[in-house]
Amino acid sequence: MTDAQPIIQIRNVSKRFGKVTAVDNVTLDIMAGEFFVLLGPSGCGKTTLLRMIAGFELPTEGQILIDGQDVSNVPPNKRPVNMVFQSYAVFPHMSVADNVAYGLKIRGVGRGEREERVREALDLVKLGGFEGRMPDQMSGGQRQRVALARSLVMRPKVLLLDEPLSALDAKLRAQMQFELSDLQDQVGITFVTVTHDQDEALSMASRIAVINKGEVAQLAGPSDLYEYPANRFVADFVGSVNIFEGKLTLDEPDRAAVDCPGISKVYLNHGVTGPHGADVWIALRPEKIYLHVPGEGKAVRAAAQDAPDGHNFARGVIKGMSYLGDITLYEIKLDSGEMIRVSRPNLSRHDQEDFTWDDRVSMHWRADSPVVLLG
Amino acid sequence: MALFNRTPVAPLEYTRKAWMRGWVGATMFFLYAPLLILMVFSFNDSKRNVVWRGFTLKYYEKAMENDSLVEAMVNSLTIAGLATVFSLVLGALAAVMLWRFRFPLKGAVEGTMSLPIIVPEICLGVAFLIFFAKIEWPTDLPWPLNLSAITIAHITFCFPFVAMVVRSRLESFNREEEEAAKDLGASEWQTFRDILLPHMKPGLIAGALLAFTLSLDDFVITFFTSGPDTITFPVKVYSMVRFSVTPEVNAASTILIILTIVLTAVALKLQGVKAIAETH
Fold first, then answer.
1. Residues 81-100 of A with CB under 8 A from B
2. What is the value of ipTM here, to two decimals?
3. pTM, to two decimals
């Protein structure tokens, strides 16, 4: 995908509804063949952005180009994109085959070719044999496949999906995540998906744009987004995180240190290129913190040996625990009085008994684990 | 043992509760017994509608031979047919307008539109009488144009009912379906024809049935707007009953009832009962 061309170019697009700015000066390139995800909390403007690509909303300012053509003022029925709606919007008075054939019929595709393509599309979404069914005889998951087939049969340049999995139950959602990725591989069409679910975004996307208050907070691949969040919003929205305020006390090309009174002195084995003495934030993922009984910690730390003494180390008391099966989540009150979340995989069946409420524990983390956030 | 082993009545098993059955029975009785008696006595071989004196069809013959009664019936059906078609189109358009668009004074438009529903019929009747007299609407036109005044009056009070029914049907429309159609390339008109209209269909059928029956049995407004030569069925029955209730009236009424039932059945059959029930 290195030589990919942008299929959608969003240039300085803003959308205002009266006094409310839904999308604020967004510039984005979506590459051909990508599985692109717009991720953000509800009301952040991600759906408005998607609807502007589809043509249901017109930008107040800026331009949208699809395949090099300015479509800013092209109505939705003339755009080379198709959309799968959140409610699926399957036409209830038409059979599955008629639903899928509808767009081709409008386009004037002959009966023979139409039937052939409808069959292909239904096979693609594993609904072969359902041609004669009416939508009210199908489950939510099946209706979604109809909506998918109905869009894919048009062979659009881009397929837009608005919260495609939000109405499905957890098991089906997990399954559909894989199927959507597979489908995208098979048809090679660019997918643009809107979701508020970070798991969904991380598991399916090739690239993710995190949207906050109408602006792109960060644009990155799934693992970069998780491991190298650019700001507090992204760190907090994608995954679970502990954030502590601190002052940058050391910043060299190969190491840095931040003094966080809330937790400890934090040492990093890389530079952060921030102004010395600046107020910064440290983000630390719960799964990157090692938990041990006090005393035992020294040995563990000695093994890690990647931070000077007195750094990357904290003590506290367990105040809350939730056992989630695969992991156990601990809420720990630090000696500074602040709370921290630590997760711990239950490697053996008895692991959950290692720590319990009101236990005094020590924590440490590796020097490459914390992320320094400047904003 | 089995004799005493009756399953107890569950809270929601209404059909097994005696008082409920009684209530339903009474409702049915008061609703349909008068109609049934009317129909039965149309076959009564007696000039008076009190005692059963044997089966006969002669009052049907008599009703059919009564030219003015047949004419009144034809007039009524013509008016009802025309009023249904016009109020269906007007009502549906009004419903779509009110549902779809936002415009100044929308509330006022909505309110005035439902006026014919709430204004007492007698007032509407008098209003129409004065109105048609004032603008000197011609009364001596050939059939069916001589029915125009009545038809216009009927359309006026029928179309708000259609609009109301269709509007409530539109409330359940998923706007994303419309967007999906456009997304697939459909124009505004194609979207209306292929997506919105099929959704409105049960509402349109219900509205048409409502308009047809409202127009068919309207007495008050018709009475005030009918000219000397334009007698409708209800008005004719009224004038006949003033002398005496003969089985002839029963026969004519029975024909009307059966006609209405057949029409409704055909409409339901065409659409499928399910779709009508879906008018939630």
1. 81-83, 85-87, 89-93
2. 0.85
3. 0.81
